[in-house]
Amino acid sequence: MESSPLEDWFPNLAAAGYVITSPVTLMYNCYAWAAQDSTHWWEPGRTMSHYYWPPDIAATNTLAVHTQLFVMIGFAVCEDSKLEAGFEKVALYAHANGSASHAARQLISGVWTSKLGIYEDIEHNTLEALEGDVYGTVAQILRRLRSDA
Fold first, then answer.
1. Rounded distance, CA 91 to CA 118, Å?
2. CB 32 within 8 A of CB 131
3. What is the pTM of this model?
4. Around 93, how many Cα atoms within 13 Å sit in the side-chain half-sphere?
5. Average pLDDT of the chain, as a whole number
6. Residue 29: CB partners within 8 Å, gap ≥ 6?
7. Do 141 and 105 form a contact (C-beta atoms < 8 A)?
8. Could you tell me the maximum CA-CA distance found in the chain, to the nearest angstrom?
9. Tell me, what's the pLDDT at 1?
10. In 3D, which of 97, 114, 146 has the Cα closest to residue 32?
11. Phi-psi region of 98 (alpha: psi -120 to 50; beta: other; left: phi over 0)
12. What residue segments make up the domains of the chain, in order of their start?
C-alpha cells in the first residue's frame, strides 16, 4: 500500500493514528482553525480580503507573537496538554529558531485537530504526530474555558 504524502511529511503521523476530516482548502490555515475560524487565513502582514491579522499584534511570525494572538482571544498559557474538563487547549509548534510553524486544537474527546497548510484538516491522537522537520516541536500550550461547557 502506498503511503500518504502526509505520512512522508510527518513520519510520526501513521504510528500516532490520524483521520482526514476535510478536503483541501485555501480559505483558512492552522491558526484560524485552532481559533475556530474557517473563513479567514490568519497570517501576519497579509491584507487581502480573506486574510486576518489583528492590527494591535506585531506582524512577525514568532512563537511569542502567536502566543500573544491566542491570549488576545481568551487563551492563557498553561502547563500541559492533558485533557481538562471544561477547557479547550491549543498547542503551538515552533522551530528551534523561535519561528512559529503550526497550531493544533484539542477536541472535547482529547483528540487534536489540525489544518495542514493549504491541505486537509486532520484529527490526530497525539501532538508528537506532527513534530519533526516541517513544524518543529510543540513549544507552547494554552487553554481557555470551553464555550460549549
1. 19
2. no
3. 0.94
4. 22
5. 93
6. 41, 42, 43, 115, 117, 118
7. no
8. 49
9. 35
10. 114
11. left
12. 5-145
